[in-house]
């Protein structure tokens, strides 16, 4: 880590701490926003959903979801 050196003036411990915090916050790169994938491009979007299985499956296969 780079050391700071005060070459002019008289700074208090609080002022030095505030300066270090300000410089450290500027050094951190901003996080990129996560993009939501576009569903209309996904080929899996066009695939058929699984068929219902079990008792009453034939009845529920014709009902809208």
From TrEMBL:
<dbReference type="GO" id="GO:0004658">
    <property type="term" value="F:propionyl-CoA carboxylase activity"/>
</dbReference>
<feature type="region of interest" description="Disordered">
    <location>
        <begin position="45"/>
        <end position="65"/>
    </location>
</feature>
<dbReference type="InterPro" id="IPR032716">
    <property type="entry name" value="ACC_epsilon"/>
</dbReference>
<protein>
    <recommendedName>
        <fullName>Acetyl-CoA carboxylase biotin carboxyl carrier protein subunit</fullName>
    </recommendedName>
</protein>
<dbReference type="GO" id="GO:0003989">
    <property type="term" value="F:acetyl-CoA carboxylase activity"/>
</dbReference>
<dbReference type="Pfam" id="PF13822">
    <property type="entry name" value="ACC_epsilon"/>
</dbReference>
């Amino acid at each position: 880590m780079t050391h700071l050196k005060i070459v002019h003036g008289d700074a208090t411990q609080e002022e030095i701490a505030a300066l270090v915090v300000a410089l450290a916050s500027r050094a951190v790169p901003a996080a990129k926003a996560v993009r939501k994938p576009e569903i209309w491009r996904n080929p899996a979007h066009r695939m058929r959903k699984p068929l219902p299985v079990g008792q009453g499956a034939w009845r529920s296969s014709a009902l809208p979801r």
